Amino acid sequence: MGLLLPQLPFAFDDLEPAMSEDALSFHFARHHLDHFERTAALAQRAGLGHLTLEELVCSASRAPRLRTLYRHAAEAWNHACFWESMRAGGGGAAYGAIGDCLRERFGSYERFARRFHGVAATLFGNGWLWLTWKGDRIRLLTTGAGDTPLVRGHVVLLAVDLWEHAYYLDHQNRRGAWLRTFLDELVDWDRVNRVLED
């Protein structure tokens, strides 16, 4: 199968006003595509161009000589998860299976939202905020730079980009405002429920 060029699950202006067309197109074209193109070139040189992106991330994570390939492949994969975590008209309190899981784990959706902000605040510098499933429970965690929980056996339910390029055009340096917008207006709980069902 090999590497497939990433596709956005929505048009560049579909997420407005929560995420502006300028912010989304800049983010996708200048960051996601750059990581993907570097990944493809490095994978070909390493004789790994036949692997899918997920396979490539996992394979490169185990080989110190492929550290640069891992960083770019993980960032490309992380971005793909990020786009899939959002939809036009999304946001609001979780419902369905994920709503039940969050209430069981955190006590209420409001407590989850506070924890969501709190966990993101613990990340110094750039990286990612994740809602994952591992073992028998929901987990909230961050990874620095281009690391990914995929290589530690987590099933990713949603991903939030915490690099400044994800929110600077719309929110300047206000990460908290970006996280509120993500939860209130963008998160795709329908997709999270589909992942939980699989």
Summarize the structure.
With 198 residues, this protein is mostly helical. Helix content is 51%, strand content 12%.
For the record, the CATH architecture of the largest domain stands as 3-Layer(bab) Sandwich
- Alpha-beta classification: mainly alpha
What's the helix count? 8
Biggest beta sheet attributes: 3 strands, antiparallel
| Average pLDDT rating | 95
Spatial ordering of strands, largest sheet: 2-1-3
Structure report:
This protein is mainly α. The protein has two domains: 21-84, Helix Hairpins (Orthogonal Bundle); 96-197, Iron/manganese superoxide dismutase, C-terminal domain (minor pseudopilin epsh fold). The protein is 51% helix and 12% strand. It has eight helices and three strands. The chain has helices at 21-45, 53-61, 67-84, 96-106, 109-121, 168-171, 175-186, 189-197; strands at 127-134, 137-144, 155-161. It has a three-stranded antiparallel sheet. The longest helix has 25 residues, at 21-45.
Features:
198 residues, mainly alpha, Helix Hairpins, minor pseudopilin epsh fold, 3-stranded antiparallel β-sheet, 12% strand, globular
Describe how the helices and strands are arranged.
Blueprint: H1 21-45, H2 53-61, H3 67-84, H4 96-106, H5 109-121, E1 127-134, E2 137-144, E3 155-161, H6 168-171, H7 175-186, H8 189-197
Antiparallel strand pairs: 1-2, 1-3
Helix pairs in contact: 1-3, 2-3, 4-5, 5-7
